[in-house]
């Protein structure tokens, strides 16, 4: 159970929540297997305490920080966000977390930092998916954001969901949530935050660059080469009335974030 | 006492028993997934689970159908031949249910989505083509059609090989990461088709 978090009405959606049961049993977390139910089945042994995060790159205060220290004095908020997976399904999830910006500011980024790169834990002993020889992802999983995306008030680091600490399968103990981008950008179980001058590599982009770009903003107008992104199925869907809804540009957060990309050709920067 | 399958087939009751076993046994996957769905044990996205499940069973039945000839030749399982038609029809059966599940549970029979999927998605076009080609093989699988078509029957049913390749492509094309399962089915198919080439070349 987490300290009573204040609910953020400014950034939260009033849409119907995807039940806890589904949020925590239907996951893409390939470190624990390729099936949607694998993470819940195989992540339970993940040691999340003690946990530390290495902060490096263009910051004045680099170092290895204990998670407890990072969370000291942080006001946790509840943020109810839509999550749109690149596979064309979506959920509505009540995260508990805090703005990434507030954390980054504490490390005092230098003037030359233009990107933030994140790394997930790499520990094949605890993560069976990292032992598989037939996967196509190079471990560890890496993701990145442009500085203005990282500092945006919608971008949070989550430590909980549904009022309790994150279950391992959801990216415990610390994960990113960027609601206007496809789910794979919201990297889980973060062990490293690196402030960079150059655009960092990202795992799915390395795996299939023609299918997954660096930005990965939810965009109904740009299809995945193998399937359409113009609609999505809101989970849980019932069999005889599949919950098909139209996908919104920037996952419905256009008003807040579209300006970050003004003048960019979103067909090119997908 | 060792009872050989050949001996079992000499008796009408034996034949009936084995036929029933094949027929009912092949309905077990459908029964299992139906039960899981009714008990709501398929998680947040039952549609996707059902679609994938039916698809993989269609593929398996196709592969098993193609395995009859090698099994017959390599292990003297001549008795299997009489069930080949049933196995092939089950491949068509599961493929049809797979298609129906996609249209109903994933696309909700929305005409715009159906049209889009069938015209724009390469892996769906490939999968749908495989089903369209399989359909006439199912229809002409009876002895009556075999007689009527004569020599052309064999030519028509040779289509099973390109169909299998289309099915494999359809399967491989929708993977996001992790190719182990596809690799296994590819190796099995390579053997099943390679063995026929070997027989032909001998």
Question: Mind explaining what this structure looks like?
Answer:
With 270 residues, chain A is α+β, with helices and mostly antiparallel strands. Chain A has one domain (6-260): Sulfite Oxidase, Chain A, domain 2 (Alpha-Beta Complex), CATH 3.90.420.10. Helices cover 13% and strands 25% of the residues of chain A. Chain A has seven helices and 13 strands. Chain B has 202 residues and is mostly helical. Chain B has one domain. Chain B has helices spanning 5-8, 12-25, 28-38, 46-75, 84-106, 111-120, 122-139, 143-149, 151-157, 160-173, 180-201. In chain B, helix 5 (84-106) crosses helix 7 (122-139). The N and C termini of chain B lie far apart (38 Å). The relative contact order of chain B is 0.10. Classes of the chains: A alpha+beta (270), B mainly alpha (202). At the A-B interface, loops of A face helix 4, helix 5 and helix 6 of B. Chain A: Residues 47-204 form the Oxidoreductase molybdopterin-binding domain.
SSE blueprint and pairings:
The complex is a heterodimer of chains A (270) and B (202).
Chain A: E1 6-7, H1 20-23, H2 38-42, E2 52-57, E3 63-66, H3 67-71, E4 77-84, E5 89-99, H4 100-106, E6 115-120, E7 142-146, H5 147-150, E8 156-161, E9 164-165, E10 175-177, E11 190-196, H6 203-207, E12 231-234, E13 244-246, H7 254-257
Parallel strand pairs in A: 1-4, 2-11, 5-12
Antiparallel strand pairs in A: 2-3, 4-5, 5-8, 6-7, 6-11, 8-9, 8-10, 12-13
Chain B: H1 5-8, H2 12-25, H3 28-38, H4 46-75, H5 84-106, H6 111-120, H7 122-139, H8 143-149, H9 151-157, H10 160-173, H11 180-201
Helix pairs in contact in B: 3-4, 4-5, 4-10, 4-11, 5-7, 6-7, 7-10, 10-11
Domain Oxidoreductase molybdopterin-binding (chain A): 47-204
Cofactor (chain A): Mo-molybdopterin
Enzyme class (chain A): oxidoreductase
